[in-house]
Write a structure and sequence with these properties.
Blueprint (H helix, E strand, L loop, with lengths): L2 E5 L3 H12 L3 E6 L9 E5 L5 H7 L5 E4 L8 H19 L2 E6 L22 H18 L5 E5 L2 E3 L14 H5 L4 E4 L8 E3 H13 L7 E3 L8 H12 L6 E4 L1 H8 L3 H5 L5 H4 L7 H7 L6 H17 L3
């Protein structure tokens, strides 16, 4: 039985920790506040920017998974310290550093995104995410750490709530047959990465040396617009067609006066105003693993949300 350390217990961290525990591994989860233990998982209260503390927690770990992220509007200020701590702990312990990344680093592109695209983002969030990986990759190439980054598009599926663009803003009204609102063009093709596929890719990347030293895209289904995904969700829910409305840029601008999160969305608006498509063929070819079929994703997501809402959560 191997020991694994997961940083963060948001949707991806929780899914990864629970998958590792189901596979019989000993798992520690690091969060700032800690939590009560659950089967196979020990929760540790620690600020992950504390490199000495993180090194101690990861002392006997086979892998260190970063599924944490600073608050959205503080990325530029806080990501560097978190990334430095992760690299320090990985170097000191020999644990494989598995970093959950996103697609911000590429910046706006007009082609399906592959891992060999340059990290050419010009916005501050895209630049900081690119720098986090470039630092880890440089240390890997120097032989100081074993590192891999696994990049996902917008999360979708059971466990994805407030932060998902097809989650809390869509499923509750949809299940009541009410209209839903979305950022950007509701008809633009968009890649959605299923959360269980994220957890599986992180776990597999940790244990397969062929994955180390580079970035990979999580197996992701075909790009489907918000309108098409909403139609499929409504069909599964049996609520009938629901209206899908794009939020005007002016509405977001006004909201940004009061909400730091909405203010920060301006940088990544391009991801929803035009096609935003992931090519995950490199992972599929190397490891023979494809994304969960979309129909299965939709069925599981509707069932999870129905249970959640019935329980009053």
């Amino acid at each position: 039985m191997n020991s694994h350390v997961v940083i963060g217990f948001g949707p991806a961290g929780a899914a990864t920790a629970r998958l590792l525990a189901e596979r019989g591994h000993s798992v520690k989860v690091v969060t700032a506040s800690g939590r009560a233990p659950e089967p196979g998982i020990e929760h540790v209260a620690l600020d992950a920017r504390d490199s000495a503390g993180l090194t101690e927690v990861a002392r006997d770990a086979a892998a260190l998974y970063n599924c944490a992220s600073p608050p959205y509007h503080r990325w530029a200020a806080e990501w560097p310290a978190l990334a430095a701590s992760l690299c320090t702990a990985a170097e000191a312990t020999g644990a494989v550093l598995v970093m959950l990344g996103n697609l911000y680093g590429y910046g706006p592109v007009d082609v399906p995104m592959t891992e060999d695209l340059p990290l050419a983002a010009t916005g501050p969030k895209g630049r900081v995410r690119a720098a986090v990986w470039e630092r880890a990759r440089a240390l890997h190439e120097q032989g100081r750490v074993k590192a891999v980054e696994v990049r996902a598009s917008d999360f979708f599926g059971p466990g994805v709530t407030d932060g998902g663009h097809l989650a809390a803003r869509v499923l509750p009204p949809l299940l009541r047959g009410k209209p839903v609102s979305t950022l950007g063009d509701p008809d633009a093709p968009h890649s959605w990465t299923y959360l269980p596929d994220v957890a599986r890719a992180l776990a597999e990347a940790a244990g397969d040396e062929r994955a180390w030293g580079r970035a990979w895209h999580v197996p992701t289904g075909p790009a489907l617009s918000v309108r098409e995904m909403t139609r499929r969700l409504a069909d599964e829910a049996g609520t009938g067609p629901v209206a899908v409305r794009g939020l005007p840029a002016a509405v977001l601008a006004v909201g940004g006066l009061f909400s730091p999160l909405l203010r920060e969305l301006k940088e990544i608006r391009y991801q929803f105003d035009r096609p935003f498509v992931v090519d995950a063929s490199a992972w599929e070819t190397a490891f023979g693993v494809r994304a969960t079929p979309v129909d299965e994703q939709v069925k599981a997501t509707v069932a999870w949300w129905r249970e959640r809402l019935a329980a009053g959560r």
